[in-house]
Amino acid sequence: MPHALPEPNWPSQEEAQRSLLFSPLKVGAFTAPTRSWIPAMVPWRATEEGEVTQDVLDWYGRFAEGQPGVLVIEATGIRDVASGPLLRIGHDRYIPGLKRIVDEVRKRSQGKTRLLIQLIDFLSIRRRPEPSKFFERFLVIEERHRVGLKSVTGESSWLHASEVDVRKALADLPNDSIEQILDDREWEALQFGARQRVWDLHEPAIEELPRTLPTLFADAARRAQEAGFDGVELHYAHAYTMASFLSPLNQRTDGYGTTLEGRLRLPLEVLAAVRERVGQDYTVGCRYLGDEVIEGGGRLADALSYATAFAAAGMDFLSISKGGKFEDAKQPRVGQSAYPYTGASGLECMPTVRMEETPFGRNLPLSHAIRQSVRDEGFDIPVIGAGGIASFVQAEQALQNGDCDLIASARQSLADPDWWLKMRQGQGASVRRCKFTNYCEGLDQKHKQVTCQLWDKDKETPDTCGSKPALSLDGKRRLTPPPMPRS
Ligand SMILES: Cc1cc2nc3c(=O)[nH]c(=O)nc-3n(C[C@H](O)[C@H](O)[C@H](O)COP(=O)(O)O)c2cc1C
Ligand code: SF4
């Protein structure tokens, strides 16, 4: 049985006014007018070149109408390299487009929403190959493959066979024999698609990351500042480069891995480079994992140490997430890439009503422990909690309990971006409540324009500006939610 949604017990306007949720809080250089936060969500609406489109403006403008205290723009690539319809900030030519988002959010939130942009770096991951192509083109044939062929077939002639014959023979073997012959990374490349690791020191670009990333992040942060954002969120979470540096799985032997200090070194150097570029009077925080939820990965104890180190180094906020790793992702179909939100760690990142234990407020114990730990160390850095927060009572209790200082709500804000405003105005009963069944996440997985299944119940209702609702590329779905009913 799926879990029922928590009782909403929506507040009256007076209760909302008195609440912690709707009271201001300083976050680094700015003050968030309320403690409501929409965390980064990729909607796949940029151009293939990573430029801002009208759809991107409509998406963020629509979130702004609900007047969250803080809105975080999607994971935005800091390199100037092709990465599909994901926003990019890897060159100065992106600044004018990003400025348009800032203007749109300022206008449509009536200046009531502070705006951050999430800065991301990620390593290469290939699609799962056709086995024939893998053996024909991708596999680098070495002596051990010939030795392996000899061992599984019992024929020593393989030791002297031509590369073409070795490739053909490998392609014709049953899977269990192939697994015996390939090493772990080759087997993974065949089954899932090749994926770079931060400890692939034999690859010059990976070896160089500690030299390249601080500048890439610092340049990106400077562009965000020029575009008018109130601050940046460094993406140190989930399956991406910086989280991989922090992970105990990081085996780099050049001083940027293995020990706790080594793993922290690059994230702190990135922060220092960013800070130097944008100055003290600019909000710089990070999103990172309270628990990686994978075998051999970082647990809460690691996250507590990182929190102290980040706070001491001058991070302005800590946004806590959980899981979302490649290590336990499901095997993709041939021709598709692995998606880090499909395994157990992915489920913890975006918990659903179908999981065994409740998805609601599920990750708050992590943010609570992290907040308590940094407070004990004497830091008052704001901690942001997320994960299945979808009612006023839940949000307010979390703040009162010290689980976190700001409430991040992704999917409930997607289902109804006006929910913050509705609660404030005592109109909670009209909130369109998220079902937590992850239809939106399924679209994200396919890199399709993200929408919410609930919006389509009002398919004909005009958009906020009164025009016919724009539809997704497949022509079937509303691209933005219906407007808030006038009271
Ligand atoms: C469609 C979609 C896209 C997301 N994209 C990002 C992202 O770009 N960066 C990030 O840190 N988290 C991303 N997330 C995770 C959310 O920010 C959030 O942590 C997660 O959904 C759990 O919060 P919720 O229960 O309030 O939805 C995404 C989630 C969804 C549903
Ligand atoms: S698609 Fe489903 S899980 Fe996603 S926001 Fe809408 S109701 Fe929530």
Give the SSE layout.
Layout: H1 13-18, E1 25-27, E2 30-32, E3 36-38, H2 54-65, E4 70-77, H3 95-108, E5 114-120, H4 131-138, H5 143-153, H6 163-172, H7 175-181, H8 184-191, H9 204-207, H10 209-227, E6 231-236, H11 241-246, H12 260-278, E7 283-291, H13 300-312, E8 318-322, H14 344-349, H15 364-376, E9 383-385, H16 392-400, E10 406-408, H17 411-415, H18 419-424, H19 439-445
Parallel strand pairs: 3-4, 3-10, 4-5, 5-6, 6-7, 7-8, 8-9, 9-10
Antiparallel strand pairs: 1-2
Helix pairs in contact: 2-3, 3-10, 4-6, 10-12, 13-15
Residues 411, 414-415, 434-440, 452-454 line the site of iron/sulfur cluster.
List keywords for this structure.
two-stranded antiparallel ribbon, globular, binds flavin mononucleotide, alpha/beta, eight-stranded parallel beta barrel, binds iron/sulfur cluster, 2 domains, 38% helix, 487 residues, TIM Barrel, 10 strands
Describe the protein.
The protein has 487 residues and is α/β, with parallel strands linked by helices. It has 2 domains: 13-122 and 211-458, Alpha-Beta Barrel (TIM Barrel); 131-191, no CATH class. It contains 19 helices and 10 strands. It has helices at 13-18, 54-65, 95-108, 131-138, 143-153, 163-172, 175-181, 184-191, 204-207, 209-227, 241-246, 260-278, 300-312, 344-349, 364-376, 392-400, 411-415, 419-424, 439-445; strands spanning 25-27, 30-32, 36-38, 70-77, 114-120, 231-236, 283-291, 318-322, 383-385, 406-408. It has an 8-stranded parallel beta barrel, surrounded by 7 helices. Strands 1-2 form a two-stranded antiparallel sheet. Strand 7 (283-291), helix 13 and strand 8 form a beta-alpha-beta unit. The two termini are 37 Å apart. Bound molecules: flavin mononucleotide and iron/sulfur cluster. Iron/sulfur cluster (SF4) binds next to helix 17 and helix 19.
